[in-house]
Amino acid sequence: MNQKNYEGAPVFGLDIGTRSVVGTVGYKDGDNFVVVAQEIREHKTRAMLDGQIHDISRVAATITEIKEALEEKTGCSFHEVCIAAAGRVLKTLNVNVEIEFDKEKNVTKDDIALVASRGMEKAFAQFSEENESATNFYCVGYSVMKYYLNGMWMSQPEHHKAKTLGADLIATFLPDDVVDGLYRAVELADLKVANMTLEPIAAIRVAIPEKYRLLNIAMVDVGAGTSDVSLTKDGSIFAFGMIPKAGDCMTEAIARHCLIDFVTAEKVKKAASTQEQITYEDIMGLEQTITSEEVMAICEPELDNMTEQIAKLLCEMNGGSSPSAVFVVGGGGKVKGYTEKLAEKLGIDPKRVALRGEDIMNEIEFPQDCCKDSTIITPIGICLSYYEQNNNFVYVYFNGKKVKLYDNNKLSVIDAAIQAAFDKDGLFPRRGQDLNYTVNGKKRVTKGEYGESAEIYVNEALVNINYEIKPNDRIVMEPATAGKNAELKVSDLIDYKAKLKLMLNNEAIELPKAIKVNGVLRDADYQIQQEDEIVLESFLTYEQLMAYMPQEEQTKTLYVNGEEAAADTRIYSGDELYLFAEPEVVEEPKVSEETVAQREAVTQQEDKQETAEVFRHMVEQEAKEEKIEEKMEEQDTNRNILVIVNQKPISMNGKKDYCFVDIFDYINFDTTRAQGSQIVTLINGRDAQYMEPLKTGDKIEVFWKDL
Question: By C-alpha distance, which of 696, 686, 699, 683 is closest to 645?
Answer without folding.
Answer: 699
